[in-house]
């Protein structure tokens, strides 16, 4: 008796004694470790599937997770019994969830039909979510069926969610058909998905969505435009995104700050600075503007941060500026960032009364690792606060390491 037959007999014996973990071990060896096209494996596929399904039906969550790969490797032969499980309303919810997950692994029309039907008839949110995910991972094969679901109000959102998972040009047309839907969730999901495509039909749609009545849609539109910096001048993106810094919704404002940092330009930096310095700006948005200015890494953005550091009274905001200056990476800008930080010590900035602020200052000087900061760091090693001294010592060590 050859090795494969022996393993199969052992697997059958493990099933007979309900030793599911041992059965999984044998099936993994038979299906995943042996050559899948081995004639004996092919001949016994039906039996192997039967054994694997027995684990799927009665196993615990972990055992079901482990048997998934076995069933997947057995191929399309698994589709009919999985559909039977999926459509059995009396079956355990978790079992049906796994059946939906597995069907998504097969690029097969029957699997698509079963999952689409589930979206039409099932009330359980977890099952519907898994069906959406499964259809999404099927790629272009599922687009036609999902497009049909867009016609029905009951399934439109689910279809849009599934289409949004298929990052292929073919989904652009069906997604464009719902960007003015009455449902906020449908519009927001469609705009989010469209924002990932570099297609000439998309930017005008995103620009129109900037003025959508719903904040989630505006936010997705801003974010989508942020990934198109090459259109900065052609579509005057800075001018179009800048008003969203003053949106009624704070999340939209924060997204606009990040977007302007990605789009770039001195005018974008200027608008971020204006919002940062306004006494009416919420603290969260001020923090986002500080980070956005630092991410731009331009001489003008650093100049704005320097000005803010000298004019803002909030220790928390000043500390954030010191923190982000320490993260500047461009070699031509690290001397400027170091100079700004050293000026804090020279001018005896009011925030220096705060020990945490001084500690962050020492840390940032160490990260920038400029030799001109050595004397200032040595002075900080004699500070009255122990944490400041430790940060200064670590910064000096970092400076020495960088020099080597």
Automatic annotation (TrEMBL):
Per its UniProt record, what PROSITE patterns does this chain match?
Answer: ARM_REPEAT
GO cellular component terms, A-Z: phycobilisome
Q: Name one Pfam family in it.
A: HEAT_2
Domain of life of the native organism: Bacteria
Alphabetically sorted, this entry's keywords are: Antenna complex, Lyase, Phycobilisome
**MF terms in GO:** lyase activity; oxidoreductase activity
Which Gene3D superfamilies does the record associate with it?
Leucine-rich Repeat Variant
Q: Does the keyword Lipid biosynthesis apply?
A: no
Family to which this protein belongs: Belongs to the CpcE/RpcE/PecE family.
PANTHER family with a match to the protein in the record: DEOXYHYPUSINE HYDROXYLASE, PBS LYASE HEAT-LIKE PROTEIN
| Name of the protein described by the UniProt record | PBS lyase HEAT domain protein repeat-containing protein
Give the lineage. Answer: Bacteria, Bacillati, Cyanobacteriota, Cyanophyceae, Nostocales
């Amino acid at each position: 008796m050859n090795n494969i037959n022996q393993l199969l007999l052992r697997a059958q014996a493990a099933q007979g004694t309900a030793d599911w973990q041992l059965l999984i071990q044998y099936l993994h060896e038979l299906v995943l470790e042996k050559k899948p096209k081995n004639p004996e494996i092919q001949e016994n596929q039906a039996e192997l599937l039967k054994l694997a399904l027995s684990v799927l039906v009665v196993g615990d969550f972990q055992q079901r997770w482990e048997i998934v790969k076995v069933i997947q490797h057995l191929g399309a032969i698994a589709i009919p019994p999985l559909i039977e499980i999926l459509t059995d309303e009396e079956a355990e919810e978790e079992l049906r969830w796994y059946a939906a997950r597995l069907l998504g692994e097969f690029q097969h029309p029957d699997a698509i039909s079963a999952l689409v039907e589930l979206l039409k008839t099932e009330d359980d949110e977890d099952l519907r979510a898994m069906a959406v995910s499964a259809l999404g991972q099927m790629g272009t094969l599922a687009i036609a069926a999902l497009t049909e679901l867009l016609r029905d109000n009951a399934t439109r959102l689910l279809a849009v969610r599934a289409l949004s998972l298929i990052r292929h040009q073919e989904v652009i047309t069906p997604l464009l058909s719902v960007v003015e839907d009455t449902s906020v969730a449908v519009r927001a999901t469609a705009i989010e998905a469209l924002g990932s495509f570099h297609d000439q039909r998309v930017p005008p749609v995103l620009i129109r969505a900037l003025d959508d009545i719903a904040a989630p849609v505006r936010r997705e539109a801003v974010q989508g435009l942020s990934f198109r910096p090459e259109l900065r001048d052609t579509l005057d993106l800075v001018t179009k995104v800048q008003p969203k810094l003053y949106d009624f919704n704070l999340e939209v404002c924060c997204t606009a700050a990040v977007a302007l940092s990605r789009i770039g330009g001195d005018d974008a930096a200027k608008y971020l600075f204006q919002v940062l310095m306004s006494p009416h700006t919420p603290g969260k948005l001020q923090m986002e503007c500080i980070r956005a200015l630092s991410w731009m890494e331009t001489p003008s953005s650093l100049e704005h941060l320097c000005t803010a550091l000298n004019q803002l009274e909030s220790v928390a905001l000043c500390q954030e500026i010191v923190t982000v200056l320490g993260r500047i990476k461009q070699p031509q800008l690290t001397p400027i960032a170091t100079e700004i930080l050293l000026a804090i010590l020279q001018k005896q900035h009011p925030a220096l009364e705060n020990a945490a602020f001084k500690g962050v200052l020492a840390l940032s000087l160490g990260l920038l690792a400029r030799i001109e900061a050595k004397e200032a760091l040595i002075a900080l090693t004699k500070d009255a606060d122990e944490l400041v001294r430790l940060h200064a010592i670590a910064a000096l060590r970092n400076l020495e390491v960088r020099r080597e």
